[in-house]
Design goal:
The chain is α+β, with helices and mostly antiparallel strands and 449 residues long. The chain has 9 helices and 11 strands.
Length: 449
């Protein structure tokens, strides 16, 4: 008689809408002295409770309930699953794994466990031990950690419409292929694939009760911990996968999460950008001093430390170089090229200074020799007064003038050479500075775009 009261044509989704509200409202809590229906007292409720157990055969605990898959309205058992994400525990980029805590509610039809509520004091649900019933063998395909924390409730709930409901809290660690190209501004999508390990699509199919909008909203409301990750959406895909041993039905939950980049922006990207700004301002330091070169080398070592930290965070087997890796590598290369330019400018400045010092020494020597020659001409020997000696003095004076002209010419040439070295160094420094600024602006614009 109970089976005749079940409307076969009714949509199971509509029948199971009472499930969520019944569990959330704690309708299964027993209160001593409160009747189950307005027309039933405590004694009537007790009698109806025992009668319901006997009618459903729960007092016998037969093999038919515990081992046989229920065939309610056809050869295929329809299992309805809702999975709520309650916590994002860890996202491991190096191991490409995703750890989360979920609450999974599973419902399946069992016409033999239906009853008429009016005959049993209006009882809509009944909690019975789980080991008394067949439960669907649904597992997570992407699971990579067997010792995950699982809290399985010891009871299942029987709904008067002929459905059995099970609720479990699972801590899952699953494989998730991540795209870290936009790290730390990345959005990741990880799949949780539900699949029966023993039953084919002709025996068991998996559906979802509610849509993605409702599931996402309910998960956000019950969220307990998310850390640096924000839950964006949960989407479902029903798919039939073909294997060697047959075709199996799969329900794929696609969980989309977004990283909160503020911590990486403050502790990682901004310091490297400030290093680049300091390198630009170092061009205004006097190139003749060694402090400029040591300052640039210190900046290069600082970025090297940042790259080591980045290497510990990102996986070494990434398909594409992440943009933050390009960001650090290019800035590292720019500062390295800037150091080479500083070394070249210092070399040219030193060569110009050496030329200038040599010219100064030679000029001093020439002036000293000129003074000595003039003194010799102004005070000739008293014993020599003839014409021949006058002519030799004139020749010596001409030679002295010629040597002075030659020395002056060589001094001017050395001065020009030293000025040429210095001028080339300054031209190189200014040109490189302009190109350096243009390169930084273009690079940052392209990277941001």
């Amino acid at each position: 008689m109970a089976s005749e009261a079940i409307p076969v044509h009714t949509d199971p989704r509509k029948l199971l809408k009472t499930l969520y509200y019944a569990l959330q409202a704690k309708s299964l809590i027993c209160t001593v002295g409160v009747s189950a229906a307005e027309n039933c007292n405590h004694t009537d409720y007790t009698v109806a409770y025992e009668a319901l157990f006997q009618q459903l055969g729960l007092d016998k605990n037969g093999v038919q309930m515990t081992h046989m898959r229920p065939l309610s309205w056809g050869p295929v058992t329809c299992v309805y699953v809702d999975m709520y994400v309650t916590s994002i525990i860890e996202v491991n980029e190096k191991a490409q794994s995703f750890s989360t805590q979920v609450k999974m509610m599973t419902a399946w039809s069992n016409r033999n466990m239906a009853w008429d509520e009016e005959e049993f004091c209006g009882m809509e649900t009944l909690a019975v031990p789980k080991e008394m019933f067949w439960t669907p063998d649904i597992g997570i395909v992407e699971s990579i950690k067997t010792e995950s924390g699982t809290k399985e409730f010891p009871y299942v709930h029987l709904i008067s419409y002929g459905y059995t409901v099970s609720s479990d809290v699972l801590t899952l660690t699953t494989a998730c292929k991540m795209d870290l190209y936009r790290f730390p501004f990345d959005i990741q999508s990880c799949n949780l694939t539900l699949q029966s390990s023993a039953h084919s699509v002709k025996e068991l199919t998996i559906y979802t009760l509610y849509g993605s909008v409702w599931l996402t909203l309910a998960s956000k409301q019950t969220f307990q911990a998310q850390g640096e990750w924000e839950l964006l959406s949960i989407n479902m895909i029903n798919y039939n996968a073909t294997f060697i041993w047959g075709v199996k039905n799969q329900l794929i939950y696609q969980i989309t999460i977004k990283r909160r980049p503020l911590l990486y922006l403050i502790n990682f990207m901004l310091p490297i950008f400030f290093f680049l700004v300091l390198d630009v301002t170092s061009f205004f330091i006097d190139a003749n001093k060694a402090d400029k070169l040591s300052f640039k080398v210190t900046l290069l070592l600082s970025i090297s430390v940042m790259l080591l930290i980045l290497n510990d965070t990102l996986p070494s087997t990434a398909d594409k170089i992440p943009l933050i890796g390009v960001y650090c590598s290019v800035i590292f290369s720019l500062i390295g090229i800037s150091i080479l330019e500083t070394i070249l400018v210092n070399f040219l400045m030193v060569r110009g200074a050496e030329r200038r010092s040599v010219a100064s020494v030679e000029t001093t020597s020439a002036v000293t020799a000129q003074d000595d020659g003039v003194r010799d001409l102004q005070s000739p020997p008293d014993s020599v007064r003839d014409q021949t000696e006058d002519q030799s003095c004139i020749l010596d004076l001409l030679k002295q003038i010629l040597s002075e002209c030659r020395a002056a010419t060589q001094h001017n040439q050395r001065e020009k050479t030293s000025l040429c070295w210095t001028r080339v160094a300054r031209i190189i420094d200014v040109t490189f500075f302009i190109l350096y600024i243009i390169t930084i602006i273009v690079f940052l614009c392209v990277l941001g775009k």
